[in-house]
Amino acid sequence: MLSLVLLASLSVALASNPRVFVLTDIANEPDDAMSLTRFLLYSNEFSVQGICATTSIWLPDSTHVEQIQSHIASYAEVVDNLNAHVAREAQYPSAAELLSKTFVGYPAYGMDAVGEGKSSNGSRALMQAVAASDEPTWVTIWGGANVLAQAVWEYEQKHSTEEVDNFIAKLKVYSISDQDNAGAWLRHRHNSIFWILSVHGMNLYTIATWVGISGEGFYPFDAGGPDSSLVTNEWLDTNIRNVSIFGSTYPDFEFIMEGDTPTFLSLIQNGLNVVGKPRWGGWGGRYSRISTFDNLYVNAFDCNVVGQNGANFTSAQATIWRWRNAYQWDFSGRMHWSATADFSAANHNPVVVVNGSNAVAEALYLTVRPGDTVILDASETHDPDGDALASVTFWQYLDVSQFQQAFQATPALGVVQNGLTAVITVPSPDAFATTWADWTSGRGANEDDMSLHVVVEVWDQGVPSLVGYKRVVLTVQL
């Protein structure tokens, strides 16, 4: 009875899960297997369309679907436990379902795997998944992009130009840099594809956004900023590997922990992330559209992110590591779910309700004018376990609204918090005239997005302490 009552508190309004198709060069190094472990722990947040073993520059002529299957077999041992911790409408996929959606790409590097005679069950499954629904399909590329390129090529052979354009419009891609030549080929062929990518010389990953997930010990960026203690093998032993039988399969990292994970972190609808809005930032980093002539989203920077050493950091990597405390403890929290079917024996995220909006997966959208005052009321926020709230913070995510890479280029909201409520004051018209002038004149790639963002961030006192969010998007009418 206790579990039923507690689970009822999780039954809040849910958004539809994003359709996701994973391409992974698993077996190249341990980090793909690490990312797959986390992906499976969050698989109830997605409509999983496929998980496909691929090649890459690091694994040029072989694929290893057996490693995907092995991880799913381990997941099968704990999926019933996981389901005990989520609402009935948010259940995890069965291992059998995931195995039926496990595929393999053509075992050749890059464009050598694209064209006549290069079809694979992976490319066919991806093509069919995109064609089967009017909803977008997110293709998360952890290695090379040739399976996606082949899927598009195959579709082109039997469909009209209009049909191909419609197919392309349904693709949403987030790739961990370019790890073969197929991604560049495909973007050149179809520059309207929505594609999130750190653009740099081949293999020069130091400047990539995604290394912010854990990579400061291997790549030279933001020394003293990220909390490196949360991505050591020692922390992972205590909080992941030794927690459950599923956690015990999580390997040690060779270079960095989970370099591929940002591709799906941004798709977890946790109240902070907004699917399809890479410039708004979240656990998977922040990216900005490069121009109005294509749909390529590239590195953006967050400014003055306070690091562990008290210094301020401005970097692309900071758009991910600023959330590390949240995404690592959330990972640990879910691993604890996998250890027990007893709801009361594990912690669960607080549910943040603002102005009556209990749609955890959705932002709260309000329309304002310069000079307006808005009251945000989070008094209905609650914790499913009955834990006290450790902290409640209303703060403006300034970086989202920058025209230039500086805080002074953002209209600053007045935020006066009193416990679970806050009074938000929109600045005067003059503030927008000086900071958003080029946007309003139509000279920017993001001029259609005139919004200011408040994040309501709530931590509980459970073990481990977990976070809940509500993003409030203030659309400014000038």
TrEMBL record:
<dbReference type="InterPro" id="IPR011483">
    <property type="entry name" value="Sde182_NH-like"/>
</dbReference>
<dbReference type="Pfam" id="PF21027">
    <property type="entry name" value="Sde0182_C"/>
</dbReference>
<dbReference type="InterPro" id="IPR013783">
    <property type="entry name" value="Ig-like_fold"/>
</dbReference>
<protein>
    <recommendedName>
        <fullName>Cellulose-binding protein</fullName>
    </recommendedName>
</protein>
<dbReference type="Pfam" id="PF07632">
    <property type="entry name" value="Sde182_NH-like"/>
</dbReference>
<keyword id="KW-0732">Signal</keyword>
<dbReference type="GO" id="GO:0016799">
    <property type="term" value="F:hydrolase activity, hydrolyzing N-glycosyl compounds"/>
</dbReference>
<feature type="domain" description="Cellulose-binding Sde182 C-terminal">
    <location>
        <begin position="373"/>
        <end position="476"/>
    </location>
</feature>
<dbReference type="InterPro" id="IPR036452">
    <property type="entry name" value="Ribo_hydro-like"/>
</dbReference>
<dbReference type="InterPro" id="IPR048527">
    <property type="entry name" value="Sde182_C"/>
</dbReference>
<feature type="domain" description="Cellulose-binding Sde182 nucleoside hydrolase-like">
    <location>
        <begin position="19"/>
        <end position="287"/>
    </location>
</feature>
<feature type="signal peptide">
    <location>
        <begin position="1"/>
        <end position="15"/>
    </location>
</feature>
